[in-house]
Amino acid sequence: MGNPQPKDQDSGSVVQDWEIGWLAGMLDADGSIMMNRHQKRRLAKPPHERVYLEPYVFFYGTDVPTLHKIDDILCRLRLAHYISWNANSHGYKKSTGQKRRLWAIRAVGFKRAHALLVTITPYLTTKRPQADLILQWTRIRLAMPTNGQRRKPYTSEEIGLVDRIRNMNRGLGSETKRWVPNY
């Protein structure tokens, strides 16, 4: 299931506040909010124009009912996301030694990440600082006129926000990622 979820899915019932709070709790507990910084290899452009920045919001897990619950809530909220399975990685349940496949639900790119974070940031606790900085960054990017072209190169303010987000995330990572070898 590597494709984004269809936008015309049945919206089902209204999403309750407690469901958004649960979703935020899942992200706080076993998710990631981060910025990825790519370096393009176009030598004709100056170095500051070769940088490509992209926000990521990930939920990780091994429990399939949890995957379905998160997917259901995101679909009812009409938030674009991808679901993927890491075929080479397995989570290990400490009590039984049982292996489980690892799944990820992700909202990648500044429009998808922005839409998701606008919805759940008020409910976040431990990852709220990263979410606030990414929202600040995405609001700057979304406010820029495009005129049918790509947005302008990144400003020093935007690069500074990305560096702050990346420094916040220099910890051990999520519990699932620590238990999954070679992830």
Provide a brief overview of the structure.
With 183 residues, the protein is an alpha+beta fold. It has 6 helices and 4 strands; from the N terminus they run αββαββαααα.
Write structural notes for this entry.
This protein has 183 residues and is of the alpha+beta class. It has a single domain (17-169), classed as Endonuclease I-creI, CATH 3.10.28. It has helices spanning 17-30, 64-76, 110-120, 128-143, 156-168, 175-179; strands at 31-39, 51-61, 82-92, 99-108. Strands 1-2-4-3 form a 4-stranded antiparallel β-sheet. α3 (110-120) crosses α4 and α4 runs antiparallel to α5 (156-168). The chain is globular and about 50 Å long. The two termini are 19 Å apart. The relative contact order is 0.19. Mean pLDDT is 78; it is low at 6-11.
